[in-house]
C-alpha cells in the first residue's frame, strides 16, 4: 500500500527534475512550497551527499528545499534531513478507500454537489477553499488555470453549491496513476459546516475515481472531525507521511 501511494505521487510531479534518488517537482507558475517539493524514490539508498545535492538543486531553482513522502518508503531519510538542518512541518496519517469499502452518503438538502461548469464557478470554488482553510485571498487567473489543467489531464473537481447560489465547499482529486488517485483540498466554508457536505464532496470525488477504473483513493486527515467525515464514506487508516523543510 505504501509503495503504491508513493509511486502515485512520483508519477505526477510538475516539471519533474531528478536529483539522485529524489524527484523534484518545480512549477514555473508559482514558488509555493506546497507545490514545489521533492519526494524520494521508494527503497532507494540515500546518503548525506544525496541530501546536499538535493538542497543545491532547490537553490538553483530558487525554491525552498522541502519534501513530502510516505515514511515507510524511506525510513532512514528523516534522520539525514534533520542532520542537514531540516525541520519537520507536520506528520500526517493517510487514509485509503477502495470500491469495496466505499459508502455513498445521502444527499444534503438544499445543496447540489457537482463539477464546476465554467471559470466563474471554478474561481468560486478556489475562493471557498481559501476561506475554509483560513487563507482568504484574491483568486487569480493562474488559480483557475491550475484547476482547468487538472481536469484536462484527467483529474477531478467537485463543488457544493447552495440552492441560493453560493459555493459552500469543494475538493479535487489528481489524475489516477497506477490505479491510484489522491483526493485533496476538501473544504467547507464555516456557515455551511456540520451538514454532511464534506463527506458528500469526498464521496462524489471517490465515485468519479472508481468509475474511471482506478481502484484506490487516498487522502490525509488533519483532525478528529475530518477523520470521522472520511471514515463515514469508507476511508480507513493506512500509513504515515512526513512534511519537512529547510
From TrEMBL:
Keywords recorded for this protein, A-Z: Acyltransferase, Transferase
InterPro entries assigned: Acyl_CoA_acyltransferase, GCN5-like_dom, GNAT_dom
Top-level taxon in the UniProt lineage: Bacteria
One MF annotation (Gene Ontology) recorded for this entry: acyltransferase activity
The protein's Enzyme Commission number: 2.3.1.-
Keyword Acyltransferase found: yes
Domain N-acetyltransferase: 111-246
Name the record gives this protein: GNAT family N-acetyltransferase
Species annotation: Nonomuraea corallina
